[in-house]
Amino acid sequence: MLGFTPQYIRRLETEGSARRPPFGIPPKDERGQHSYNLERINDYRDRLGIRRLRPAGSRAIRCAVAFFKGGSAKTTTATHLAHRCALDGLRVLLIDLDPQASLTMLHGILPDIDIQREDTLADVLVYDPSDIRSVIRETYFPGLWLIPANLGLQDAEIRLLDHRENQEEFLDLLAFQRLDYGLCQVEGDFYVIIVDCPPNMGSLTLNAVAAANAMLLPIPPRAVDFGSAVLYAQTMSALKRDPRFSRPLDFFRVLLTLHSGSGEAKNTEAALRMLLKDYVLEHVMPLSVEIERSAADLSSVYEIQQPKGSYEAYQRALSYLNALNGEVIDLFRQVWEQQTEELPAKDVGSSDAAGSSGRL
Length: 360
Hints:
Layout: H1 6-14, H2 38-48, E1 61-65, H3 74-87, E2 92-96, H4 102-106, H5 122-127, E3 137-138, E4 144-147, H6 152-161, H7 168-171, H8 178-186, E5 192-196, H9 203-211, E6 214-219, H10 223-241, E7 251-256, H11 263-276, H12 289-296, H13 311-341
Parallel strand pairs: 1-5, 1-6, 2-4, 2-5, 6-7
Antiparallel strand pairs: 3-4
């Protein structure tokens, strides 16, 4: 994670260097081995000056993960991308917009038991988008913040469609512009904002699309999903051409999920790549037992300490996820680089833009 040999890190911990005092020796775990958590890794990155910050003048990535069919690994995609971003030292806000709240459960929160409606975006979107900061909570995963969900969002979905209840005149905001307005209040605190959308094209998903400057479409390479994928991509394109959805997309990619490696999957993949060309990510998410097991344990593969199955299966899943998420993060960084190229040279630098406010 640091790119240095263990010997060099141990020397920095005990002796330091000409420019740095000793880092200090990490504590030992119950097995008597030195233990490194992500907070310590990030501290080392900062001391060594190798933490890849979002360049000054660039904007937070607002990535909507959306598809209007369930069972596409949408929540799995959002969770693993967010965790990998945090592991890379980025500050991440993960938003659960799905009333089913699977993403919320994956982060140790029981919807409708541990949280109430007012802890979600339900009232924020309907009544006061400027109050979005009140529903952001820090997670157990360093560098990751969460806006959870529960069934209260289903009520918000209905209220946003009702002109008598959606406060459009009072707020001077259309029903699908609320999330965009809210994120403008907090995006300076984060590098990447990832939104897990409901599997539909309702008012909650429209809010995510209107707010997004990046989109990921997770699509299983199955014949039954092929037509849906094309239709959804066309729908997104039409929405983003609507002047009311004024935020342009800096990034749009199709991600092939639940790839079984079968003949049907490979044929569908080939057809999608022929049709959508470079918009399809090079790497895929496989149909993996290890990913399924981690979800059953309400966690991600990145959180597994002891695989339940074979170590080889775990390593394969981890390798696929690292390649896939690494590709997406590299594309995020290309967006930031392009944004900084548009700035005068004096405005370009590397700074902790997300952490400067100190409000989270």
